[in-house]
Design brief:
The chain has 626 residues and is of the alpha+beta class. It has 17 helices and 18 strands. It has helices at residues 2-11, 15-34, 55-60, 63-77, 126-132, 137-147, 150-166, 178-195, 203-222, 233-248, 254-272, 284-303, 310-326, 348-354, 367-377, 413-416, 450-456, and strands spanning 47-48, 249-250, 387-390, 395-400, 403-408, 427-432, 435-438, 465-467, 495-496, 502-508, 516-524, 528-537, 540-549, 554-559, 561-570, 574-594, 602-614, 617-625. The strands form three sheets. Strands 8, 9, 10, 11, 12, 13, 14, 15, 16, 17 and 18 form an eleven-stranded antiparallel sheet that branches. β10 and β11 (516-524) form a beta hairpin. The protein starts with a helix and ends with a strand. The relative contact order is 0.09.
């Protein structure tokens, strides 16, 4: 499976591109082998200088935001780090930086090039990586600025010195990929700006921090995740991090570095996003991360007095319009594709979520990010319409009163490479007010469990049709393929129905290998949702319709078998689901799990409506509510 996927990917690329990619990889290999031999041990050639990054954030912060910052900082001083869906583990004031605290498994402090990241022993490298992104440190520094309490400053001096001394350059799990070093470099820059100025007795600490920033520049440059074949958020983080580091560091060549990397960021936004503003990775979680990276770079360029390209700013505005079109009234996005809580820096929404019990957190509350973007871009975020179409992204949002439906036929991410894509073609998310009735499965984990990883991105974990127990996109069961999928489920462009009702239609070809094509029509009316699934083809096939409901909903069945089946869905509202076909149906209510915060699993319910039918066939689902 792995060899076939790689072979198919290579066949789609022109020979000159493949030759250039091979040359680039050879150059990168040499850089990686020799970067530690550079000026290691010599005098640091740069000095740190603030750029005024936090001016706007300080103006927008409310009293509640300030209180949340101080509460978060107090937790860190106790050795408690609010991290993803794992709660706030007490890791101590000097954590073990090489350990996954969930499994207790650790990585050796040896040459990072020889470290095996994914070991399939129950560990997840995201745990130590998330802690070592140091994104908690600017929050503690903000608490120092707000209160003047030197406990925060001294705590940062202690823990950051500990990180630098116990994570020598090029050794251990935290020096394995450029993305982690780039995001960590941003955190250190923001922290140092907030702590500025440094007193005379802190000169040694300032020099140590500045030397570490220089090491981050060298590491990211030598381990760039650039590729001519496919580029995503990893490479973007590299150049965003390098542009930020070169903005804060003054010395030989730094001004030229800043111009180079800032220009690369501006060009990359046109390559990594669609014209409608959607990120090309088929994931709302990664759209948020990428949008924040571009917004961060926008601020850095402004503070450095650089001219921002008009096309960059226009596309960035579209990225946030895209978010507003898709979000609910609380500015919360549905979990489409992978979501692992990736951020550049923690904003008030992130702090508010971190104060909740792990089971109640949701990583896609982003009102504060949208508010910041609107202020910085001087751009009123887009109005919501009864029908919002993001055609390139393959997403439609229908709204009627307090009801809204997200219907998605997203192309497989990164030109079919699918690293963060799920088998969610023609899936729907139904929302009544702020409550998701039909929800996406989310992401419980990546490498901690290959089984859970593949379940979360499987067809049955989404609100769509499954044929013959087959996946829309071929997924390898091999643990080395957890970020790969086939590119089988090619989608059509969405069409708006010409009837008076709010409706859209799309199809996909993920089952063409079975001689089957799936088309779905979604209509939203005043108090009902109608989903019509039309399955084209010949012969007899097993059809399974899946609808996933979150933990706040309970299902009681009414009619379990027949050409019409139905059930009651009770929770914040009462709904009736009824399914009809010209053949016998069976409705089954099954336990499931979803995730709204990476690492956390919540009990959920899955409704499965099964039929064995000769094609062509139609199945209509109608959901009504009070």
């Amino acid at each position: 499976m792995k060899l076939r996927a790689i072979t198919n990917a290579l066949r789609s690329e022109p020979l000159p591109i493949l030759a250039a990619e091979a040359l680039w990889r050879s150059i990168r290999s040499i850089r990686r082998s020799t970067f530690q031999l550079g000026d290691r041990g010599g005098a640091c050639p740069v000095r740190f200088q603030p750029i005024g990054y936090f001016q706007v954030q300080a103006e927008l912060a409310s009293e509640a935001d300030r209180a949340a910052m101080v509460a978060y900082a107090e937790a860190v001083l106790r050795g408690e780090y609010p991290l993803m869906g794992y709660g706030s583990p007490n890791l101590g004031t000097k954590p073990d930086w090489q350990v996954d605290w969930v499994s207790g498994k650790s990585w050796p402090l040896k040459n990072s090039r020889k470290i095996r990241l994914v070991r399939h022993d129950g560990s997840d490298v995201k745990a130590p990586w998330e802690l070592s992104r140091l994104q908690w440190s600017p929050v503690v520094a903000k608490a120092y600025v707000l209160t003047g309490d030197r406990r925060y400053r001294e705590a940062l001096r202690s823990v950051l010195t500990d990180w630098i001394e116990r994570n020598p350059l090029g050794k251990g799990v935290n020096w394995t990929i450029a993305m982690e070093a780039a995001l960590r470099g941003i955190s250190l820059c923001l922290t140092m700006e907030l702590l500025w100025p440094f007193a005379n007795e802190e000169t040694r600490w300032l020099d140590q921090m500045t030397a570490s920033l220089w090491e981050h520049v060298r590491f990211v440059e030598a381990h760039s995740e650039f590729s001519l074949l496919v580029r995503g958020n990893h490479y973007l983080s590299n150049i965003v991090g390098l542009s930020t580091l070169s903005a804060y560091l003054h010395g030989p060549g730094m001004q030229g570095r800043f111009r180079k990397y800032a220009g690369a960021v501006e060009r990359e936004i046109l390559l990594q996003t669609y014209s409608d503003g959607g990120d090309c990775e088929a994931s709302t979680g990664y759209h948020v991360l990428v949008a924040q990276m571009f917004l961060h770079s926008f601020v850095v360029q402004q503070r450095k007095g650089a001219a921002v390209a008009p096309e960059f700013e226009a596309r960035l505005r579209r990225m946030f319009d895209w978010i507003v079109c898709l979000a609910d009234d609380a500015c919360k996005l549905p979990h489409l594709g992978d979501c692992d809580n990736g951020r550049v820096e923690l904003l008030p929404d992130d702090l508010a979520q971190s104060s909740l019990p792990a089971a109640e957190r949701d990583g896609l509350h982003i009102r504060s990010l949208c508010r910041l973007a609107s202020h910085l871009l001087q751009w009123p975020l887009g109005d919501r319409k009864p029908v919002s179409l993001m055609l390139d992204s393959g997403i439609a949002v229908l709204r009627s009163g307090k009801a809204s439906v997200v219907f998605y036929a997203m192309p497989n991410g990164l030109n079919g490479k699918g690293s963060h894509t799920h088998c969610d073609k023609l899936s729907v998310v139904l929302r009544l007010g702020l409550h998701e009735v039909f929800c996406d499965s989310g992401s419980r984990c990546y490498t901690r469990s290959a089984v859970l990883r593949n379940l979360d991105r499987s067809t049955e974990a989404h609100n769509t049709l499954m044929v013959d127990n087959a996946e829309q996109n071929l997924l390898s069961s091999g643990p080395r393929s957890l970020f790969r999928s086939g590119n089988d489920a090619l989608v059509s462009r969405m069409d708006i129905l010409e009837t008076g009702d709010l409706g859209v239609r799309a199809s996909h070809r993920g089952y063409s290998r079975l001689g089957v094509e799936h088309q779905r029509t979604v209509q939203l009316m005043e108090r009902s949702l109608v989903v019509l699934d039309e399955v084209g083809g010949t012969n007899e096939h097993l059809l399974d319709l899946h609808y996933v409901l979150g933990p706040e909903w309970q299902v009681s069945s009414e009619m379990m078998e027949g050409e019409t089946v139905s059930c009651i869905i009770a929770g914040p509202r009462k709904l009736t689901l009824q399914c009809e076909a010209a053949h016998r149906l069976t409705l089954t209510v099954m336990p499931a799990e979803i995730s709204r915060e990476y690492g956390a699993a919540l009990p959920a319910t899955r409704i499965r409506i099964r039929a064995t039918a000769w094609l062509p066939a139609k199945v209509q689902t109608r959901v009504r509510w009070d």
